[in-house]
Amino acid sequence: MSAMKVPLRRASSAPNPDGRMPLMEHIRELRNRILKAMLGILVGAIVGWIFYDPIWRVLQHPYCKIPQSNRLNGQCALTTTGILDPFVLRIKICVIIGLVLASPIWLYQLWAFVAPGLYKRERRWTYVFMAGSVPLFAMGAFLAYETLDKGLGILLGFTPEHVVPLVTITSYLSYAVAMLLIFGATFELPLFVVVLNLAGVLTHARIKKWRRTLLFGIFVFAAVATPSQDPFTMLALALPTVVLFEVAEVVAYIHDRRKAGRPDPYGDLSDDEASPLDMEDMEDLEDTPRH
Fold first, then answer.
1. In this predicted model, what pLDDT tens digit does every residue of 101-139 receive, in sequence order?
2. pLDDT reported for residue 73
3. Which residues touch 55 (CB under 8 Å, ≥6 apart)?
4. Rounded mean pLDDT of 136-151?
5. For residue 200, is it left (φ>0), alpha (ψ between -120 and 50) or beta?
6. Which of the chain's ends, N or C, has fewer CB atoms near its CB within 10 Å?
7. Among 67, 74, 62, which Cα is nearest to 173's?
8. Contact 231, 251 (CB under 8 A)
9. Which residues contact 229 (CB under 8 A, 6 or more apart)?
10. Domain boundaries, the chain
11. Which of 137-151, 157-171, 176-190 has the lowest mean pLDDT?
12. CA distance readout (Å), 203 to 11, 41, 85, 206, 260
């Protein structure tokens, strides 16, 4: 008898209700997300290269507002000490503009990679953070831009008589970018307080207990973090941050009060009686993370 040939069947792919991914799929997805983010930054950098001249004039404007006695020959002119400095400066500015213009793209790519690993409730907190982080950072950066000339004027005001400081374009750009980033990032701190309160990690009672310590810490941080470390720049950073912190405390107070006013669905149950299932918790359990 001839051996019967049994046709081989391909194993059907097993169902994957949890949406889990193997390690290589994670790596491929991360690679694709990074490539898309880098492509967006590259396009933004090209736009920055095209509009480099007006962008540089905007960045240089605070330096032009300082007293003429602290400028070379009384003119709004920065200096350079290297042959490659102008080209490096242009590349730096284009990259910064690319990061700013492409921020919606790379933030979305970051969110798209992380979101499948979060529960529904955690996604809501992330929505709150992302919705508030962009305008707060923009407010901080705008305030830093408006106070750049004051800090520069105070620092260069210590120059001895008959001495003209030679401010290079590299040092000025480093100072300006540091101011923009520090102010923008500091304005995000009250948002972290709100998110932690919504998540139930930080209550209003604890915020109220630590208020004096937190306010003192804000002033210490402003004094240390500002590049110029002059009193005007420190107050320009600390005072608005204190106001935003007080707003965050009010939000936390309202949230905790509303949360305390809700009736406890298990308050009438005895210690020996089983509680009914919480449907919201069941939805979170069903919404298992893919990562």
1. 888 888 888 877 777 776 777 677 777 777 788 888 889
2. 65
3. 48, 93, 97
4. 89
5. left
6. N
7. 62
8. no
9. 223
10. 23-261
11. 157-171
12. 53, 39, 51, 5, 11
Tokens 């929505």 locate to 127
User: How crowded is residue 192: how many other Cβ atoms within 10 Å of its Cβ?
Assistant: 13
Which residue's structure tokens are 């967006």? Answer: 40
CB 291 within 8 A of CB 116: yes
Q: How many residues does the chain have?
A: 291
- Amino acid residing at 263: P
pLDDT tens digits, 208-249: 889 899 899 999 999 888 887 788 888 999 999 999 999 999
Q: Comparing C-alpha atoms, which of 182, 178, 170 is closest to residue 92?
A: 170
Other C-beta atoms closer than 10 Å to the C-beta of 173 total: 19
Q: For the segment 49-60, what is each residue's pLDDT rounded down to a tens digit?
A: 999 999 998 988
The amino acid occupying position 120 is: K
Which has the closest alpha carbon to 223: 210, 213, 243, 237? 237
pLDDT at residue 5 is higher than 60: no
Residue range 23-71, pLDDT digits in tens: 788 788 889 989 999 999 999 999 999 999 999 989 888 888 877 666 6
Which phi and psi angles does 201 have, rounded to 5°? -85, -35
Strand-pairing partners, residue 168, are 79
Tokens representing residue 18 in the block: 């949890």
193: three-class secondary structure by DSSP: helix
State the Cα–Cα distance between residues 188 and 252, nearest whole angstrom.
16
Whole-angstrom distance, CA of residue 190 vs CA of residue 82:
42
**SS3 at position 192:** helix
Cα separation, 268 vs 242, in Å, equals 43
